[in-house]
Amino acid sequence: MAFRGHIKGGLVVLDQPGDLPEGAEVRVELVSSGVATQAQSRGRTLYDRLQRVVGSAKGLPPDAAENVDHYLYDHPKA
Question: Which pLDDT belongs to residue 37?
Answer without folding.
Answer: 60
